[in-house]
Amino acid sequence: MLVFRQPLPNVERPQMEADVVIVGGGPAGMACALRLSQLLDEHNAKNPSSPLSKENIYVLEKAREIGQHCLSGALLDPRSMRELLPGFEKEAPLDAEVKDEAVYFLTRTGKFKFPITPPPLRDHGNYVISINRFVKWLGSKVEETGITVFTGFAGSELLVEGDRVTGVRTDDKGVDKQNEPKSNFEPGYDLKSKIVILAEGSRGSLTKKLIGSFQLDRDRNPQTYGQGVKELWEVPSGRIAPGQVIYTMGWPLTTKEYGGAWIYGGKDNIVSLGFVTGLDYPDPRLDPQHVLQDFKEHPFVASLLAGGKMIRYGAKSLPYGGWWSVPQLAGNGWMILGDSAGLLNSQRLKGIHLAIKSGMLAAETAFDALVKGDSSAAVLGSYPQRVENSWIKQELWKVRNFHQGFEHGFWHGLVHAGLQQFTGGRGLHARYAATAGHRRLKKLNTLPPDGGAEAHLLNNAKGDGKLTFDKLTDLYHSGTRHEEDQPAHLVIHDTNICNTRSVTEYGNPCQHFCPANVYEMVEASDVPAGKQISLNPSNCVHCKTCDIMDPYEIITWVPPEGGGGPNYDGM
Ligand SMILES: Cc1cc2nc3c(=O)[nH]c(=O)nc-3n(C[C@H](O)[C@H](O)[C@H](O)COP(=O)(O)OP(=O)(O)OC[C@H]3O[C@@H](n4cnc5c(N)ncnc54)[C@H](O)[C@@H]3O)c2cc1C
Ligand code: SF4
């Protein structure tokens, strides 16, 4: 029987007092910690008799090492880093400066190069980076300041009193598959904190709970997402220049799905390539990992990779909804940053610079709160105002209706995007509505049994082992590892639905959208459909897709025991 992870009841937990707890040590969380430290240093230099301490500021990161769970393309727009650490280029791990970009529309075997690169995809002056190495470096800067980064600790619950967030509970360690304490059991800490800052990335688990409990998305568009599946390849010398950037649209997607691919030339003949598939496709049998495999079979891509070797794999979701989907950003004792807040420009496939900037603005707000000794909504409420008055709003406002324009297909989307380009992002309506992606999945009885024009995107890829790979082969290259003896962290609230309605209505889409083969339907003679759900939680790469895309909304991703997950070294 499946047993799901939940906090153990009746356990006495160690208590710790904190001034600020930042949950998530990605670009947003690390930038926040660094900026806060800078402000405290300036304050303490001016006020030596009443210094403010950094001792009680903590970053919680669920990965075993800083940066291990970070996955991105990645091209860095340096704007916010230049504000945070002027001259950062001299010491940051930057692989190459972008010198050359091209955009292609792909058909099944042909390609059409755009004569001019559309302005949002012009990347001259941006840098090709490994987000994993970049965040590691940023984290080392944070640790140098004296702020503690607790790696291997997940924020598992928010501590809430009335309408105030008062702290964070970390994960219980040493709990067995039956949710019983083992001999090495260590209860999670209750970190009582004046300010809790959520920087958990896309579909943060604590952020989701907070948004739900306080209805922070009231009056907003529902958030929409994409799933990015990425591989790193080592290719023969001279194939792709460092700093060369290629974007594609079209094949293998049809006009019914939203998404596209990137190919970035890094240093040492390493190429980052991946495909982002919008998590609002209609056919529940579609498999985003399969989409990437199809993409590589296109003659143009296959020729770039010929003779090369795939060395790393990973997948992650990213928020697409844009400005109208941004939830309320602050309240009594809390703020939300980066991808957790949906601060990503989906038109440019860029969020790192926005995450960093949001971290800086939250740090400035937290600093004011510490100086005033008041972390109520009255003070923290200036964070959303700071976002409004910053270039984050300017950038996201111009693309506020972009993704929604594609909800009725690719060609509609292009027309809307064109209109929006000439109307400062407005297009035909002041505010385009959005539909949550899981609501757009169609039931199998309304779709062609053989998949029709989408057939090549459906079901799990087989792979040839050279250019294309099945999921388990890809997964092996993600370095994913978890403590095996622990309850499942994919909490399915009603497994009966998986074994009955989902079989006939949607064909158990979790088997397909999960990029890590966590969900399997296995033969079972004692259930009417002859199949029942089985889980391989140890495979999970923490992409959060199941929490987003399940049509019945019965899956909740919660953090597994801290330290487990992918190892995105060099990604
Ligand atoms: C496939 C793909 C390609 C992309 N390409 C680009 C690009 O080229 N350029 C660009 O600018 N942007 C790109 N983005 C977007 C960019 O990666 C994100 O906008 C950015 O990483 C957001 O930073 P963040 O700090 O908000 O979140 P993240 O980078 O996701 O970091 C969140 C951190 O929090 C940790 N965490 C989460 N929950 C908990 C918890 N409960 N307790 C403890 N720790 C927790 C995670 O382990 C992680 O380390 C891409 C995204 C994807 C998925
Ligand atoms: S189980 Fe969910 S979060 Fe984990 S890899 Fe699969 S889809 Fe992603």
Q: How would you describe what is shown here?
A:
This protein has about 575 residues and is of the alpha+beta class. The chain is about 25% helix and about 25% strand. It has helices at about 25-45, 80-85, 130-145, 205-215, 290-295, 300-305, 350-370, 375-380, 380-390, 390-395, 410-420, 470-475, 495-500, 500-505, 510-515, 545-550; strands at about 15-25, 55-60, 75, 95, 100-105, 110-115, 125-130, 150, 155-160, 165-170, 175, 180-185, 190-200, 225-235, 245-250, 260-265, 270-280, 310-320, 330, 335, 490, 520-525, 530-535, 555. Strands 1, 2, 8, 9, 10, 13, 19 and 20 form an eight-stranded mixed β-sheet that branches. A seven-stranded mixed β-sheet has the order 6-5-15-16-17-14-18. A three-stranded antiparallel β-sheet has the order 3-7-4, with no helix packed on it. The radius of gyration is 23 Å and the shape is globular. It binds flavin-adenine dinucleotide (FAD) and iron/sulfur cluster (SF4).
Main attributes of the structure:
571 residues, alpha+beta, 8-stranded mixed β-sheet, 7-stranded mixed β-sheet, 24 strands, globular, binds flavin-adenine dinucleotide, binds iron/sulfur cluster
